[in-house]
Design a protein that fits this description.
The chain has two helices and five strands. By secondary structure, it is of the alpha+beta class. The protein is elongated, with a radius of gyration of 16 Å.
């Protein structure tokens, strides 16, 4: 299953760069997404009828950025695209790994596709 086009459509919707796994650009606001798992979930007549992909989508913003509205807009857009948002977390990254100037807003989502 490939939900990349759905996630990548967030770039046009919010004018924020989107990349899979790692962002190498220069913007101080961006979205990265990672596939965590994909599995068949519904079977019939000895074949898979549905697959579900589990992803983590992260909004990365500067530490002082007021992210609350954007967080809810992204959640609403993911749900509009038929993702199920199971968890949203926000935290400042650790100074230990050199990223103490950013905030990560993490969305755990899944998407089920019919064959």
């Amino acid at each position: 299953m490939n939900v990349n086009p759905l996630i990548e459509s967030l770039e046009k919707k919010f004018s924020i760069p989107v990349a899979q796994d790692e962002y190498d650009g220069k913007s101080d606001k961006y979205i990265i997404y990672t596939y965590e798992d994909e599995r068949p979930v519904y079977f019939g007549d000895d074949k898979t009828l549905q697959d579900t992909a589990y992803l983590t989508v992260q909004l990365i913003v500067p530490k002082q950025f007021n992210y609350m509205n954007l967080k809810h807009q992204i959640r609403d857009e993911l749900e509009r695209m038929k993702f199920i948002v199971t968890d949203i977390r926000s935290f400042l990254s650790s100074a230990i790994n050199g990223t103490n100037k950013i905030r990560r807003i993490t969305f755990d989502v899944n998407y089920t596709d019919n064959h």
